[in-house]
Design a protein that fits this description.
This protein has 471 residues and is α+β, with helices and mostly antiparallel strands. It folds into 4 domains: 3-88, Uridine Diphospho-n-acetylenolpyruvylglucosamine Reductase, domain 2 (2-Layer Sandwich); 95-213, Uridine Diphospho-n-acetylenolpyruvylglucosamine Reductase, domain 3 (2-Layer Sandwich), CATH 3.30.465.10; 217-335, Alpha-Beta Plaits; 349-428, Alpha-Beta Plaits, CATH 3.30.70.2740. The protein is 34% helix and 20% strand. It is built from 16 helices and 18 strands. A 7-stranded antiparallel sheet has the order 15-12-14-13-17-18-16, sandwiched between helices. A 5-stranded antiparallel sheet has the order 5-6-10-8-9, sandwiched between helices. It has a 4-stranded mixed sheet with strand order 1-2-4-3. Pfam families: FAD-oxidase_C, FAD_binding_4.
Length: 471
């Protein structure tokens, strides 16, 4: 009996997809990577995942975990060999339990992020991980890439929101580590090792996640600014004025938002006159544990002082939930508008906040020197130093021309990131896209230690091979 037949015998033929049925799992979300596989399997439990992994190990077949297939780096796409088995966790989508006394929830890896948020809210709690793809991405993928999103400033990224994991190892064993403990000093932190490993060390099948009290009141504001330096200066002031209540601080170039409203005329920048044409905008959110009146008073005090001092030129404060959602929708529409307007070269980088303006200024100049007229598309999570620094073709350049020179663009941007003590991947991961870039920016010792861990936990290199590390 061959591997596909064995998998059909284990899971049932309807849960083993081949041919056209498997095709949607073999192309990444951006359409940049295309792979082949013996089959796509859809197990319904950690026990079934473990049995699938054991079968694949017996047949020396690589396994590629798949969640919502929203990876931006080709991390969930198999290679062209056709030997891999893609393990879709889509059927493992249950919220197993919610413990409001311990403020934890146990969820399966295939659970859609938005479903976690809704389940938490239904129990009177907040699950704060939030990002543009939350309606389709899964918590397993979020953990595999250590996702960040818009509230890292207050709550941290996926790693910091996780207390315990259930993981299927490369040998097909199940590590039952779903402990909802804030303190556990009993050895190496395996949880943190698997989070961010993009399925190269094992397959996360469930997780125990932190919950928080729902805020009593939230306030959202869009700010108009003249420079990125002013945005950084106001961020420092906002942290001092709001403390832990500051849950989000996004920044966007003015022309980027203009592109959104031009493409989606039902949306609008919430300013009239010159402020609507500001070079930069910021979006911030305050979550208050006291009252709506207290939140409003703090907002007006901090924003008013910043306007008087010239740090911000104008502020639009959302007066209701609909206006708040409209502001966030404007920000979250940027990636969609980018996709509709054409191809661009995307960078997900993190920079120390103190030098982020210098990074943008220096990198813009370097790109213009090599590619005159190239377009900068800059937005991101200023509160945690994460910029989506993207570039599109110049007016006299076709998209194809730009893509043919994308690695020259990568080198300019990533060299600048490195020079400013940053990271070439903040929240999207490495996958296939940035795998060959790592040796340029990681020390030889760092890569050696990573390879030792990989060999120790996956000696046969069957867990999502070709991702993060070069073979």
């Amino acid at each position: 009996m061959n591997l596909v037949e064995s998998l059909q015998d284990l899971l049932g033929s309807e849960q083993v997809l081949t041919g056209e049925l498997a095709a949607p799992y073999l192309t990444d979300w951006r359409g940049r990577f295309q792979g082949q596989a013996q089959a796509v399997v859809r197990p319904a439990s950690a026990e079934e995942v473990a049995k699938v992994v054991k079968l694949c190990a017996l047949h020396r077949a690589p396994v590629v975990p798949s969640g919502g297939n929203t990876s931006l780096c080709g991390a969930a796409t198999p290679d062209q060999s056709g030997q891999a088995v893609v393990i879709s966790l889509a059927r493992m989508n249950q919220v197993r339990s919610i413990d409001t006394d311990n403020d934890t929830m146990v969820v399966e890896a295939g659970c859609i992020l938005q479903s976690l948020q809704e389940a938490a809210r239904g129990a009177g709690r907040l699950f704060p991980l939030s990002l543009a793809a939350e309606g389709s991405c899964t918590i397993g993928g979020n953990l595999a890439t250590n996702a960040g999103g818009t509230q890292v400033l207050r709550y941290g990224n996926a790693r910091e929101l996780t207390l315990g994991l259930e993981v299927v190892t490369a040998e097909g064993e199940i590590w039952h580590g779903l402990r909802g403990l804030r303190k556990d000093n009993t050895g190496y932190d395996l949880r943190d090792l698997y989070i961010g490993s993009e399925g190269t060390l094992g397959i996360i099948t469930a997780a125990a996640m932190k919950l928080y009290p729902l805020p009593v009141a939230q306030r959202t504001a869009m700010l108009a600014l003249n420079t990125l330096e002013d945005a950084v200066a106001f961020l420092s002031r906002a942290r001092a004025g709001f403390g832990a209540s500051l849950t989000g601080f996004e920044v966007m170039e003015g022309h980027v938002l203009e592109g959104v409203v031009k493409l989606y005329p039902q949306q609008r920048i919430p300013f009239d006159g010159p402020s609507a044409k500001s070079p930069w905008f910021a979006l911030l959110e305050l979550s208050d544990s006291e009252s709506a009146e207290h939140a409003q008073e703090r907002f007006e005090t901090v924003l008013g002082a910043a306007i008087e001092d010239g740090l911000i030129t104008d502020a639009a404060i959302a007066e209701n939930i609909a206006q708040s959602k409209a502001m966030w929708h404007l920000r979250e529409s940027i990636p969609l508008s980018e996709a509709e307007l054409g191809k661009s070269i995307k960078h997900d980088v993190s920079i120390p906040i103190s030098v982020i303006a210098a990074f943008v200024r220096t990198t813009n100049a370097a790109l213009q020197a090599s590619f005159p007229g190239i377009k900068h598309i800059i937005f991101g999570h200023l509160g945690d130093g994460n910029l989506h620094y993207n570039v599109a073709n110049a007016p006299d350049q076709t998209e194809e021309d730009l893509m043919n020179r994308q690695y020259e663009v990568y080198q300019i941007v990533h060299d600048s990131v490195h020079a400013h003590q940053g990271s070439i991947s903040a929240e999207h991961g490495v996958g296939q896209l940035k795998r060959d870039e790592l040796p340029r920016y990681k020390s030889e010792l760092e890569l050696t230690l990573m390879k030792r861990i990989k060999r120790a936990l996956d000696p046969d290199n069957l867990m999502n091979p070709g991702k993060i590390l070069q073979s």
